[in-house]
Structures are given as structure tokens and as C-alpha cells.
From TrEMBL:
<feature type="transmembrane region" description="Helical">
    <location>
        <begin position="361"/>
        <end position="379"/>
    </location>
</feature>
<dbReference type="GO" id="GO:0046872">
    <property type="term" value="F:metal ion binding"/>
</dbReference>
<feature type="transmembrane region" description="Helical">
    <location>
        <begin position="278"/>
        <end position="298"/>
    </location>
</feature>
<keyword id="KW-0472">Membrane</keyword>
<comment type="similarity">
    <text>Belongs to the SCO1/2 family.</text>
</comment>
<protein>
    <recommendedName>
        <fullName>Thioredoxin domain-containing protein</fullName>
    </recommendedName>
</protein>
<feature type="transmembrane region" description="Helical">
    <location>
        <begin position="214"/>
        <end position="238"/>
    </location>
</feature>
<dbReference type="Pfam" id="PF02630">
    <property type="entry name" value="SCO1-SenC"/>
</dbReference>
<keyword id="KW-1133">Transmembrane helix</keyword>
<feature type="transmembrane region" description="Helical">
    <location>
        <begin position="318"/>
        <end position="340"/>
    </location>
</feature>
<feature type="binding site">
    <location>
        <position position="81"/>
    </location>
    <ligand>
        <name>Cu cation</name>
    </ligand>
</feature>
<feature type="binding site">
    <location>
        <position position="176"/>
    </location>
    <ligand>
        <name>Cu cation</name>
    </ligand>
</feature>
<keyword id="KW-0812">Transmembrane</keyword>
<feature type="disulfide bond" description="Redox-active">
    <location>
        <begin position="81"/>
        <end position="85"/>
    </location>
</feature>
<keyword id="KW-1015">Disulfide bond</keyword>
<dbReference type="InterPro" id="IPR007352">
    <property type="entry name" value="DUF420"/>
</dbReference>
<feature type="binding site">
    <location>
        <position position="85"/>
    </location>
    <ligand>
        <name>Cu cation</name>
    </ligand>
</feature>
Length: 388
């Protein structure tokens, strides 16, 4: 049939865009193996903080229940630390300022609890203008704290038996990680290098997103559902009109051409298959418009989410994402407008040709919208080198 070459044209556009996107991504990023990254998203199915009981600088007891419904950023410091701890605490001070007006909690956990009593921590906290409601300083039993850091956060901490003094005679008595841990309602979901400004920005962004209202956090799943619904509507609408065309339209051998006089719409709309096709296509357009509104709302309010995969999986994800974006912007939008315009003007043969090109492109965009969601939010984080 004549329309088959228009379907092939749409399929070739999809294949060409994907292969071009894959080549661009490969040239730009390569296939780097998993590595220790400055900002590491550990995903949703990660280690819980587990049970603990510690003392806050105010003397109040803090337990794991206090983090059960909060998003928090945890740092590891000690007050006698002359080198990296003042820097870490200064970065936490900057994070406190950036997260003003949010419900994100900051926690500094002492790795020198025998010296760092609540009173000592209180004096230290004042040096950084720590808001006692939003930034907690915790101390407790050393063995339990070290076990918590090593077994739950998977970070290193140890008393250095032979510390090497710096040129000015300062000594770090305790070796510990400078990473910031992101905790989401009791789960450790990310580790970020406090020495890397990009990683610090990433932890701030992720903390804001995770602390957002429940309706906003649900939007990625809603968007994926809308993409899936759109694909189902497209497939149903295509099946209805395809069946009708095979039975009636193709058998006539007539094709009015794009510039011929319009055909009357009313008699055609009396056919159940055509009415069903029109309903499905209009519903697909409405679904896509709702998706666009939800997508823009989420990214304006919560920002973007970085893919945590690496190597070939990262290349595949970015190739799908780039081709999805290009085809949605430069393929689906103009082609849908052309198809609708021709249908509304009664140019049904011309509409069918435009729709035949549009269909595989729109299907690809809708299906890959679901695939992107699954890859971004539900694939396990890749294995990486031991943490430090």
C-alpha cells in the first residue's frame, strides 16, 4: 500500500536519530567503566542508617526515629581537627544558607566523641552560626559511632597511630572521610565529596528534591504513566483506523491528494472505528499536553536527576534520552500539528500520509519516556571502588 512508504519514512527517521544520538554520545563521553565519583547517587534500595542513640549538643538524645521522616545531610568532623574539619564545617554552613526555608536537616557527627562533649560541640557550632533547629551536632559512644560510619555509611574512620605533622606542625589524629552523606527518611541514598564544588551543589539539589512535597516527588511516576497511556492510545487509535482503512478506504483505490478538495467529515465520523480513532488521537494529544505541564512543573520545582549508571549502560541511557528529546521537540510537535490541521480541513488522504510518518516517531517518544523513567529511577546503582 501507498502508506507503507510513509511508515517506513517515520521508522527511518527514528532509527537515524537514535544512531546519530548514539554516535554523538559515544564521541562525547566514551564508555568509561564505573569509577569513584565525586557525587554518587546510591539509589532507592540502599542501606538504612539503622538503630542508634546519640547525644545532641543541647544534651537531648537523638535516635534513628528522628531521621525516619526527614531528609538530612551528614558530615563527619571533630573539634580538635586542624585541617579538613573546619573546611567541612564551613561548607556545611554554606549549605545551611542555601537550604534556608526547607525542611532539610544538617547533621555533624563527631569522630572524637570522648573529647567532643555536648558542651564542646556547642562552642564549636557557634563558630559556624549553626541554627540549632536545622543543624545538629552529635556525639556518643566511640565504638558505636565508628561501627555506624563503617558498617552503615560504608566510609572509613580510624585513630591514626602515627599521624604525620604538616609543615606548620598541625596533626590530624583521626583519619576520616570528608564525604557528605545524603539520608532520605532513614536511608543512605548518596555520598558527595565535600572538596568538589560540583558535588556540593549536587547534594544541595538532591536534598531539595527529596524534601519536596509528596505530590511533587510523585510526578516522575505520573509522567511515566502518562507516556505509557499515550502509547496505548496511539496503538489503539492506529489499530482502529488501520482496520477501517483496510476494509473500506484501501479497497476504493482512491486518494484525493494533498491539494484536492476536502472530503466531508460528518459521514466519516458516523463510522464507529473512525470515531474511536478520533477519540484515541485527541486523547493522546491531551495526554501529551498534560505530560508536558507535569514535566515542566517537576523540573522547575525539583530540578533534574542525574543518571547514576556508568559504562555501556550510561551510553545507552544518554543515547535514548538524546534521541527522545530531539524527536519529541522536532518530530512529534510539528508533525502532530500538521496531521491535525489536515484532518480538521477534511484532507484525509494527506492527513493519513502525515500521520503515517508521525506514528512511529510518536510511539518511540512515548515508549522511551517510560524506559527513561525506569532507567533513571529503578536501575540499581553500579558497583564502585571502596569508599573513603
Amino acid at each position: 500500500m501507498e502508506l507503507s512508504r510513509f511508515y517506513r519514512r517515520g521508522i527511518l527517521i527514528v532509527l537515524g536519530t537514535f544512531l546519530g544520538s548514539a554516535a554523538i554520545v559515544l564521541a562525547a563521553t566514551g564508555l568509561a567503566p564505573p569509577s569513584r565519583r565525586a557525587a554518587e547517587d546510591l539509589g532507592e534500595s540502599t542501606e538504612s542508617v539503622g538503630p542508634f542513640r546519640l547525644l545532641e549538643r543541647s544534651g537531648r538524645e537523638v535516635t534513628d526515629a528522628d531521621l525516619a521522616n526527614r531528609v538530612g545531610i551528614v558530615s563527619f568532623i571533630f573539634t580538635r581537627c586542624p585541617l579538613q574539619c573546619p573546611k567541612i564545617s564551613s561548607i556545611m554552613k554554606g549549605i545551611q544558607d542555601k537550604l534556608a526555608g526547607t525542611d532539610v536537616l544538617l547533621v555533624s557527627l563527631s569522630v572524637d566523641p570522648e573529647y567532643d562533649t555536648p558542651a564542646v560541640l556547642d562552642e564549636y557550632a557557634k563558630r559556624f552560626d549553626a541554627d540549632p533547629r536545622r543543624w545538629w551536632f552529635l556525639t556518643g559512644d566511640r565504638d558505636r559511632i565508628y561501627d555506624l560510619i563503617q558498617s552503615r555509611f560504608k566510609l572509613s574512620v580510624m585513630v591514626d597511630p602515627n599521624p604525620v605533622p604538616t609543615a606548620d606542625g598541625k596533626v590530624e589524629m583521626i583519619a576520616h572521610s570528608s564525604r557528605l552523606a545524603l539520608v532520605d527518611r532513614g536511608r543512605i541514598v548518596g555520598l558527595f565529596d565535600s572538596n568538589d564544588p560540583t558535588a556540593v551543589e549536587a547534594v544541595v539539589s538532591q536534598a531539595k528534591r527529596r524534601a519536596a512535597p509528596a505530590w511533587l516527588r510523585a510526578l516522575p511516576a505520573v509522567n511515566a504513566s502518562l507516556n505509557g497511556l499515550c502509547a496505548l492510545l496511539l496503538l489503539t487509535g492506529w489499530s482502529l483506523i488501520r482496520r477501517r482503512r483496510l476494509r473500506d478506504v484501501a479497497g476504493t483505490g482512491r486518494d484525493s491528494g494533498p491539494d484536492s478538495a476536502p472530503s466531508p467529515a460528518s459521514p466519516i465520523l458516523h463510522v464507529p472505528a473512525v470515531r474511536g480513532h478520533v477519540f484515541c488521537m485527541v486523547a493522546a494529544v491531551v495526554t501529551s499536553a498534560i505530560f508536558l505541564g507535569c514535566y515542566l512543573t517537576y523540573h522547575y520545582q525539583a530540578g533534574s536527576v542525574a543518571f547514576r549508571g556508568a559504562g555501556a549502560m550510561r551510553w545507552l541511557y544518554l543515547s535514548i534520552l538524546l534521541s527522545h528529546t530531539l524527536l519529541a521537540t522536532f518530530g512529534v510537535v510539528p508533525l502532530v500539528l500538521v496531521s491535525l490541521n489536515r484532518a480538521l480541513r477534511g484532507l484525509f488522504a494527506a492527513h493519513a500520509r502525515a500521520a503515517a510518518v508521525t506514528f512511529p516517531i510518536w510511539m518511540y517518544v512515548s515508549v522511551t519516556g517510560v524506559v527513561i523513567y525506569v532507567m533513571l529511577y529503578h536501575l540499581p546503582a553500579p558497583a564502585s571502588s571502596p569508599l573513603s
